[in-house]
Amino acid sequence: MQYFETFPKLVYDVEGTGNYKLVTDILRRFKVRQGLINNTVLFDKYDVKLGETPEMVSQRFYNSPYYHWVILSVNNIKDRFYDWPLDAQQFEAYVNGKYTNPNGVHHYEITQTSGPTNSLDNTHVIEVNSTTSGAQAVSNYEYEQRLQDKKRLIKVLSVQYLSEFIDEFKKVIQR
């Protein structure tokens, strides 16, 4: 099923000339309920590979590229191009376009002394002033790379719940 195929149609005069056309109501919105998102039984965790698109992930899990919108929806991805991990070339262009000095200092941080003192996602560090004892500089490039790494860890709806999810989507979108 393609994303817009279940959206209602409207009769609309695009140019205001009395020439009405049937158009898809693209202003409809759908958001996955937070209670559903927090239900870990429904999802598999997946680490998006470099250069992999939502369509490729959909093909891998659902044997069809057309369920990419399910992947985007369950991860609350609104902007397909900047909320999804960039490939290497896009990332370099993005960082170089955003910062005049990608290797410049973005912020300083230290490892927290209580609680977890190491983690894969850098949740064990605290942002501090440059004058704090033991503070280490984090470059703009490293900061953006960390954000990309977080974007790579996504949830994928287990295939056995896909048809129920699509049925619910249809009900909500056609109201």
Helix content: 25-40%
Please report the number of helical segments. Answer: 6
Q: What is the averaged pLDDT score?
A: 87
Termini distance?
18 Å
Please, how many domains? 2
Based on DSSP secondary structure assignment, what is the total number of beta strands? 7
Major sheet: size, sense and barrel closure?
A: 3 strands, antiparallel
For the largest sheet, list the strands in their spatial order. 5-4-6
Low-confidence stretches: none
Shape: extended
Structural class given helices, strands, pairing? alpha+beta
Question: Approximately what portion of the residues adopt beta-strand conformation?
Answer: 15-25%
- What is the H-and-E element order? EEHEHHHEEEHEH
- Radius of gyration equals 21 Å
Question: How are the secondary structure elements laid out?
Answer:
Elements: E1 9-12, E2 21-24, H1 34-37, E3 43-47, H2 54-62, H3 68-74, H4 88-98, E4 105-111, E5 125-128, E6 136-139, H5 140-152, E7 153-157, H6 162-173
Antiparallel strand pairs: 1-2, 3-7, 4-5, 4-6
Your description of this structure?
The protein has 175 residues and is an alpha+beta fold. It folds into two domains: 3-86 and 152-173, no CATH class; 88-149, no CATH class. Helices cover 32% and strands 19% of the residues. The chain is built from six helices and seven strands. A hairpin with an 8-residue loop joins strand 1 and strand 2. Helix 2 crosses helix 3 (68-74). The protein starts with 8 loop residues before the first strand and ends with a helix.
